[in-house]
């Protein structure tokens, strides 16, 4: 059903741009393949291939107004197993981006399947509300959301976001419970320049379906429950980069005992003038769920450190370490990237717990559970 809507949307957009004599039609794509060896036989090794073709059209009116659209698909196939006799195959083709946009110097309106993300944190993000971007993923893949987004930019660089979402049946970001299929979600954000950086305030309102949780088999008598989210974040350059991100979630349900959740991240980064420049980035993250808003509850604490260094114009190395203070676990990740024009090659090593608590939504990505090595080739055309 959704695929039929996607094809109809694409057809209508092409007809509209054809009738208006679109100035430019662009097509490009990304082909990637990977091979992963994992020490844990229960996880198994993996071979995969992915192709993301993209078509974009645009037309400029009076040098100030732009009409453009983008349509792309995500098709992948992977084979996973611990031996040739126990190979499991997984694959899918689905819309990846499918949006239409009207924009001017200070205003933008975008409707369709799109990526919506914001906030100041990079590794541990309380504001990961609508995307699942994993900083360890070389492709930075994330599913989009169906909705409409309005943005207005003031002359002083302040800006206002307003959005409405509908038809997103799967859970988004870090959601445990997906939204109700028939409900309309809405929210907004204000970003305002402050000193050497900016401050942002965000909110989102939705109705979630308690009986469609992937991780919980409990049946609730309350099926649809309202959820309110409020967040504040900021980022400044004071010689070093400093930022914070905090969010509060309230779920109005008598059946959810821990119906208040608090998340907070504090981060900093600095580039040392050693060689070609060593960039260090660190974040500290806390999450806590409780019966009342400011009551002690259950949760966890994580720290993260990222180091990246450009060896030359072609080679770059990245390293990320996460530490789980509650479970005393470490997540280690090292990547060497080599780039030639349209080609890039990635050699990745990882040493993590078998049960990952970070970035769990990786069913269509490349899981880094356990210990192993991955080699990835990416071609952009």
The CATH topology of the largest domain is: Porin
Strand content: over 45%
Structural class: mainly beta
CATH architecture of the largest domain: Beta Barrel
The helicity comes to under 10%
How confident overall, as mean pLDDT?
89
The largest β sheet comes out as: 18 strands, antiparallel, barrel
> How many helices does DSSP assign?
1
Cα shape? globular
Low-confidence stretches: none
Number of strands: 18
- The end-to-end distance, rounded to whole angstroms, is 31 Å
Give the tally of structural domains: 2
Order of helices and strands: HEEEEEEEEEEEEEEEEEE
Oligomer: single chain
If you compute it from the alpha carbons, what radius of gyration comes out, rounded to the nearest whole angstrom?
Answer: 22 Å
CATH class annotation of the largest domain: Mainly Beta
Tell me about this structure.
- With 381 residues, the chain is mostly beta strands.
- The protein has 2 domains: 91 residues, no CATH class; 266 residues, Porin (Beta Barrel).
- The protein is built from 1 helix and 18 strands.
- The chain has an 18-stranded antiparallel barrel.
- Strand 11 and strand 12 form a beta hairpin.
- It is globular and about 50 Å long.
- It starts with a helix and ends with a strand.
- The model has no long low-confidence stretch (mean pLDDT 89).
Topology:
Blueprint: H1 2-19, E1 24-38, E2 45-61, E3 65-81, E4 88-103, E5 107-114, E6 145-153, E7 159-165, E8 185-194, E9 197-209, E10 224-237, E11 241-251, E12 260-272, E13 278-290, E14 298-310, E15 315-324, E16 329-340, E17 343-351, E18 371-380
Antiparallel strand pairs: 1-2, 1-18, 2-3, 3-4, 4-5, 5-6, 6-7, 7-8, 8-9, 9-10, 10-11, 11-12, 12-13, 13-14, 14-15, 15-16, 16-17, 17-18
């Amino acid at each position: 059903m959704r695929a039929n809507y996607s094809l109809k949307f694409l057809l209508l957009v092409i007809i509209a741009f054809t009738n208006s004599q679109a100035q430019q039609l662009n097509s490009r794509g990304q082909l990637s393949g990977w091979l992963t060896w994992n020490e844990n036989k229960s996880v198994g090794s993996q071979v995969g291939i992915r192709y993301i073709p993209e078509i974009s059209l645009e037309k400029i009116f009076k040098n100030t107004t732009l009409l453009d659209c983008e349509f792309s698909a995500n098709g992948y196939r992977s084979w996973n197993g611990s031996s040739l006799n126990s190979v499991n195959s997984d694959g899918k083709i689905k819309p990846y981006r499918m949006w239409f946009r009207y924009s001017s110097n200070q205003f933008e309106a975008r409707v369709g399947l799109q990526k919506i993300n914001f906030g100041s944190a990079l590794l541990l993000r309380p504001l990961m509300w609508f995307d699942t971007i994993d900083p360890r993923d070389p492709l930075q893949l994330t599913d989009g959301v169906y909705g409409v987004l309005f943005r207005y930019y003031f002359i002083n660089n302040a800006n206002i976001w307003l959005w409405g979402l509908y038809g997103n049946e799967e859970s988004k970001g870090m959601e445990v419970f997906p939204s109700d299929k028939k409900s309309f979600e809405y929210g907004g954000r204000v970003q305002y320049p402050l000193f050497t950086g900016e401050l942002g305030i965000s909110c989102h309102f939705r109705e979630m379906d308690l009986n469609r949780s992937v991780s919980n088999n409990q049946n609730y008598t309350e099926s649809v429950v309202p959820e309110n989210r409020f967040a504040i974040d900021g980022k400044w350059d004071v010689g070093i980069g400093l930022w914070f991100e905090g969010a509060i979630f309230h779920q109005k349900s008598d059946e959810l005992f821990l119906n208040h959740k608090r998340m907070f991240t504090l981060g900093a980064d600095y580039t040392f003038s050693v060689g070609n420049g060593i960039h260090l980035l660190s974040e500290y993250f806390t999450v806590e769920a409780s019966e009342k808003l400011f009551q002690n509850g259950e949760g966890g604490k994580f720290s993260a450190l990222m180091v990246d260094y450009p060896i030359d114009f072609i080679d770059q190395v990245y390293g990320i370490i996460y530490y789980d203070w509650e479970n005393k676990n470490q997540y280690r990740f090292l990547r060497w990237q080599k780039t030639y024009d349209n080609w890039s090659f990635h050699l990745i090593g990882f040493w993590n717990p078998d049960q990952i608590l970070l970035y769990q939504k990786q069913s269509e990505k490349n899981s880094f559970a356990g210990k192993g090595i991955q080699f990835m080739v990416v071609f952009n055309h």
